[in-house]
Design a protein that fits this description.
The protein is mostly beta strands. Strand 2 and strand 3 form a beta hairpin. The chain is globular, with a radius of gyration of 16 Å. The model has no long low-confidence stretch (mean pLDDT 87).
C-alpha cells in the first residue's frame, strides 16, 4: 500500500468532464455568482486540478476570486485563463439544495 495506507475498496471507473478553454467564452453566460471554478491542467497523460476560485458576475462578464501571491485577487476569467497557457479548461461546481435547506455538491457543465 502506498504510504502504508491500505484499503479494501474496489477500483471504480469515473467519467469526468471539463470545459476546454476554446469554449469557455460561450459558457460564461451560464456561470453563476459563487460557482466554484476549478482550473484544469494537463500533465503528461493525465488531467488534474491546478487551482480554484469563486465566480463573481459583473457588467463585463465573469471574474474569478482566487488566492495568488501576495493576496486574494479578483480577475476577469477569460483574461486570467489567457495568461495561463498550462490550463486546458475549467470545471464548474455548484451546490444543489436537496429541499431540506442542506446543500450537497454537484458538478455542473455549463
Amino acid at each position: 500500500a502506498k504510504l502504508g495506507v491500505s484499503c479494501d475498496v474496489p477500483v471504480q471507473e469515473v467519467e469526468d468532464h471539463y470545459i476546454p478553454c476554446s469554449k469557455i467564452a460561450a459558457a460564461c453566460e451560464r456561470i453563476l455568482d459563487a460557482d466554484v471554478i476549478e482550473f484544469v491542467r494537463r500533465c503528461e497523460n493525465s488531467l488534474w486540478i491546478g487551482h480554484m476560485g469563486i465566480a463573481a458576475r459583473n457588467k463585463c462578464g465573469v471574474t474569478v476570486i482566487h488566492s495568488a501571491m501576495p493576496a486574494v485577487r479578483e480577475e476577469d476569467l477569460i483574461s486570467y485563463l489567457g495568461s495561463r497557457p498550462n490550463f486546458v479548461g475549467i470545471k464548474i461546481l455548484r451546490p444543489r439544495f436537496d429541499g431540506s435547506g442542506s446543500a450537497r455538491p454537484e458538478r455542473n457543465q455549463p
